[in-house]
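hey so i finally got around to running both of the ones u sent me last week. sorry it took forever, my laptop kept dying halfway thru and i had to restart like 3 times lol. anyway pasting them below in the order u listed, first the sequence line then the structure token line for each. didnt double check formatting much so if smth looks off just lmk and ill redo it

first one:
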Amino acid sequence: MTDFTTGSLAKALVAFQADLEPVDKNSANPFFKSKYADLTEVKTTVQPLLAKHKLAVTQWPTTLDGKPALRTRIIHESGEYDEDTMLLMNAKDDPQGQGSGITYAKRYAFMAALGIVADEDDDGNKASAKTPIKYAPVEKKPNQERPLPSENQLSKIRELSRELGYDESAVEERIGEIETTGDAMKAIAKLQELVNSGNK
């Protein structure tokens, strides 16, 4: 966010955060074995507080240096506002990829701008973890009972995870635990089920 140069917005945000309580983690992520609050839960929880302190948040697609981005603006009833823009890291350069990137960015930008915590704290393990093993496609041999997952399977897992708005570092960590083609097939099936059900 840019530096505050206005008083009413700053005072309202201080009061808002003083009233803010932890957001319930209403969604379970079976792929990562973790819990989190989805964007609907986050907004439902904080909207009354935003209204109480005469605040509103708007988000819309834009560009930054010619690249797709999301702009988030916090507005006070006085007309004062603060905003910043976040690049979208789209998995695919098509409408579906764009939509997934926007969905992912909206949740994280909204929470970051307002100082909301709605994910489990792993004490920085995911951010500081070593780069997981990335399996290359292998040719199945007659006596090979545990074929490694193919690159196509891993790409599909990344694609579905991005569509669901999952954190990329967590995705890579989970991929590092997938040892066989069968494991990859199960992960793809679970992710596809979540996509089909609209559980983001």
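and the second one:
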Amino acid sequence: MINYIVVDDEPLARQLILSYAAQVPGMQCQGDFPGAVAAFEALHRLPVDVIFIDIEMPGINGINFIRSLKNIPKVVFITAYAEHAVDAFELEAVDYLLKPVTLERFLKTIQKLKPTQHTPSPAQQPDTTSIFLKVDKRLVKIDLDQFIYAEALGDYLKVHCTGQTYVTYLSLAKLEALLPPQRFIRIHRSTIVNKQFISFVEGNFVRVGELDMPIGLTYREGVLRSLGG
């Protein structure tokens, strides 16, 4: 069951999302609110897994409201303005929907919210030394000793290895299931890193080669624990 709330100052916009969510099994509405203040109170007394929230609202806008929360549930921003996408990414939003939202687009977002079980095919079973990824029309063997990091690009992944980069149609969650957890770590909603290529952690960044890569707020504790910090 996914418990959610909708926050938008436009009544029709709230009603549209509520009508879409009502068509999805396993979605439980905990309320809809015209602004951040009412939503803040609800978050302290109701179980909320996901917030569907507008950005441009009177008073506190959606971006600043999410930044103000100590315990942030999953967030889906719904807005008429594309220019806030970078801020949404930094907050590790599950998705960023542009109004008017269609049912088809909404259902794609729901797929990102619902956990899926993935059983790798025999060719993809991790053996601690390599995995196979589909690149174009081929299954390519990836040596884990050369696998530096992977980053999400929409529905695709860019896998950076020593000497070569691969693009594959795969979610980061499915890739994570293929990789041995003792060797790889999720540092952000969009990034998995091979621990052997991490030089150091400083503040909210890890140094990987010559790159300073951001650690997501919800991943920081796990990163430090995994690295012995």
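quick thing i noticed on the 2nd:
Confidence is low (pLDDT under 50) at residues 116-127.
anyway thats it, ttyl
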